[in-house]
Automatic annotation (TrEMBL):
Source organism per UniProt: Nonomuraea phyllanthi
EC numbers for this chain: 3.4.21.26
Entry similarity comment: Belongs to the peptidase S9A family.
Biological processes, Gene Ontology terms: proteolysis
Gene3D superfamilies noted in UniProt: alpha/beta hydrolase, Prolyl oligopeptidase, N-terminal domain
Name of the protein in its database record: prolyl oligopeptidase
The reaction(s) this protein catalyses: Hydrolysis of Pro-|-Xaa >> Ala-|-Xaa in oligopeptides
KW Protease (keyword) present: yes
PANTHER family, A to Z: PROLYL ENDOPEPTIDASE (PTHR42881)
Gene Ontology MF annotations: oligopeptidase activity; serine-type endopeptidase activity
């Protein structure tokens, strides 16, 4: 294969001396997206990618499989039901209300707001009576959510736009006259490089100017804090939580809103300065239910009195399971014997158990459609005997299931609206050993015919932030396997599949465990005859982009092809860009000598070596990404193009007007087709 010459990228002698170590950075000039030199280089890379791209082999099949559409778990407010749904021909899901008589109305349709498809719906929250709906939208992938409120009956706007509401919860007070929410300070009040931070909790009264909003929390705390806020259904209790960045711990306070004014709630500490996570549900029975991993890395549910919510009063209701991670719960109390439904993931597979609400005794389980993933369990806020939950697996588009606690039966409530013919596949969960002897699980999805002999294979992983890789419907995975390939998803340390200890075994100074787990997954697939190094591609995005970046620099001989999407790759300077400063609780900070040592030891950009035959590599980045700046991939791409020998290409796919998160279906299809086509070409599929 003859490659076109790579675009010229000037190498500088730039270097920093950090804790006595010289850290070269030859492509720092690419950190400036507005410089003519960077723009010219990006244009040349786009032209190169266009020439090398070839025909998008999988595009029509991915589009066809995505015609399944989707459906979301309902939120009930009285007899009104709120839910999202995407039909086969829609670019984005639409948010609906269903009236008691069965009449449906669209409340928020991103394509009606913006026919270009660049506007995404980021969050929704109906008020407690179902009369008003707060929703947040952003444009072009920047995730800079703007908040609006509409009247559910008429669709008329009653509030907004309120800007600076990225990642803001909305906690309605009863009656819909006011809500608590989170908003960043204005850019004029903070340093230029800190405009993404400095959040505060405010009280807003509907119909008044935001200038009159009352700040109730956050003053004087860390600039990287994220805040949660919610109000109990009866309006009696307020809870406010604070996370330092993405740290796996939080501080938590409650206030009795009947005993102090809503604009000056008297907050009582539930937990402060404790290395654990805790969340509260104020029960209709007057009890306070506590979901925590404190002294229980896989999670437990405790009960206490909301008047005395401190740790010393907690009593186990559903204790920690030695194997399964407790994910969520719902209370069904319109029964002779009220129950709690508890959601778990056992080695990444979901299940729901039924417990006596008073004693916590396990009294049954909820039938589920298969070995897959369950979305949030939803009940009516006023109580009842029914619950709803989402379900998906590798061959099942999202469905909503209804559980009736009076009969013990689960029935299909709603399906994704599109009829698609899903190819037959075979899914198995295997266990392999990592470098240090730890057992790791991996889901392997292969053609149903299971013909022997190694096949082109894609290995995918994430391994960070306590996020779990669980089974789910994926058009791109199905298209790949249907074409004869194998797709493997490894449940690496750093994720949440086995609880908080599993997460911590892959964060901070333990990050190399994640990379070792991934290399061991590849070696297992090769040793068991699933694939060969010449047929093995790897793929990951965001923190998973860091994973595959480390994989290709640490073990280039093990992989034939790499797709590295929206990645973190310069781990020495990552804190300076995007939301990087909120992730030093996960990775560490270069300000600390020991933590600098961890970061520098694996930072992919700093481990590109001259004259190495690196795997074929495709970087996919998004120009409007405000979480992970594309500069990581730009610099790494230039470094690899300079250093790599052989005939395997290093390419950059730089997409504009999209960001790190949600995008239109057609944009998703294009991206998936390009990445699968690249992987197929370089693994021999």
């Amino acid at each position: 294969m003859t490659l076109d010459p790579y675009p010229t990228a000037r190498r500088e002698d730039t270097a920093d001396i950090l804790h006595g170590t010289s850290v070269p950075d030859p492509y720092r000039w690419l950190e400036d997206p507005d410089s003519p030199e960077t723009k010219g280089w990006l244009l040349a890379q786009a032209e190169l990618f266009g020439r090398e791209r070839g025909e998008q082999r999988f595009k029509s099949r991915i589009a066809e499989l995505l015609r399944s559409g989707s459906v979301g778990v309902p939120a009930w407010r009285g007899e009104r039901q709120f839910f999202s749904r995407r039909t086969p021909d829609q670019e984005h899901a639409v948010y609906y209300v269903m009236e008691p008589d069965g009449t449906e109305r669209a409340l928020v349709d991103p394509m009606a707001i913006d026919p270009s498809g660049l506007t995404t719906l980021d969050a929704v929250q109906p008020d407690k009576e179902g009369r008003l709906l707060a929703y947040q939208i952003s444009v072009g992938g920047d995730e800079e959510s703007v908040l609006y409120v509409i009247d559910v009956t008429t669709g008329a706007r009653v509030e907004g736009p309120i800007d600076r509401c990225r990642y803001s919860p909305v906690a309605w007070l009863p009656g819909g006259e006011a809500f608590y929410y989170v908003r960043r300070l204005p850019a004029t009040e903070v340093p230029e490089n800190e405009t993404q931070f400095h959040r505060r909790v405010y009280l807003h009264r509907v119909g008044t100017s935001t200038e009159d909003d009352v700040m109730i929390f956050g003053e004087g705390l860390k600039m990287t804090n994220y805040y949660g806020v919610s109000v109990s259904r009866d309006g009696h209790w307020l809870q406010v939580s604070a996370h330092e960045g993405t740290a796996p711990r939080n501080d938590l306070w409650v206030a009795d809103l009947t005993a102090s004014p809503i604009e000056r709630p008297e907050l009582t500490v539930v937990q402060e300065g404790v290395d654990a996570q805790v969340g509260l549900v104020f029960g209709r029975d007057g009890r306070l239910y506590v979901h925590t991993d404190r002294d229980a890395p896989r999670g437990r549910v405790c009960v206490t009195d909301p008047v005395t919510p401190g740790f010393e009063t907690w009593r186990d209701l559903v204790p920690e399971d030695p194997e399964a991670v407790l994910s969520d719960f719902a209370i069904l109390d319109d029964l002779e014997r009220p129950v709690m439904l508890v959601g778990w993931t056992r080695h990444a597979i979901s299940e729901i158990t039924v417990h006596d609400l008073e004693t916590g005794e396990r009294v049954g389980e909820v039938p589920t459609p298969g070995l897959g993933s369950i979305g949030g369990i939803s009940e009516r806020p006023e109580g009842g005997h029914e619950a709803w939950f989402g379900y998906t697996d590798n061959t099942t588009p999202p469905t909503i299931q209804r559980y009736d606690a009076r009969t013990g039966e689960t029935t299909l409530w709603a399906s994704s609206p599109g009829a698609v013919e899903v190819p037959p596949v075979r899914t198995s969960q295997v266990v392999y050993r990592s470098k240090d002897g730890t057992d790791i699980r991996m889901l392997v999805i292969s053609p149903a015919d299971d013909a022997s002999g190694p096949r082109p294979t894609v290995l995918y992983g994430y391994g960070g932030f306590g996020l779990s890789m669980t089974p789910g419907y994926s058009a791109s995975i199905l298209a790949w396997v249907e074409a004869g390939g194998v797709y493997a998803i490894a449940n690496l340390r750093g994720g949440g599949e086995e609880g908080e200890q599993w997460h911590r075994a892959g964060m901070l100074g333990n990050k190399q465990n994640v990379f070792d787990d991934f290399h061991a997954a590849a070696e297992h697939l090769i040793a068991t005859g699933v694939t060969t190094p010449a047929q093995l591609g790897i793929s990951g995005g965001s923190n998973g982009g860091l994973l595959v970046g480390a994989a290709l620099t640490q073990r280039p001989e093990l992989y034939a092809a790499v797709v590295c999407s929206a990645p973190l790759l310069d781990m020495v300077r990552y804190e300076k860009f995007g939301l990087g400063a909120t992730w030093n609780v996960e990775y560490g900070t270069v300000e600390d000598p020991e933590q600098f040592g961890w970061l520098h030891a694996y930072s992919p950009y700093h481990h590109v070596r001259e004259s190495v035959p690196y795997p074929a590599t495709l970087f996919t980045v998004f120009q409007s990404d405000t979480r992970v700046h594309p500069l990581h991939a730009w610099k790494m791409c230039a470094a690899l193009q300079h250093a790599s020998t052989g005939d395997r290409p290093v390419l950059l796919r730089n997409e504009t007007e999209v960001g790190h998160g949600a995008r239109s279906v057609s944009r998703s299809v294009d991206l998936s087709a390009d990445t699968l086509t690249f992987l197929a070409r370089h693994t021999g599929l």
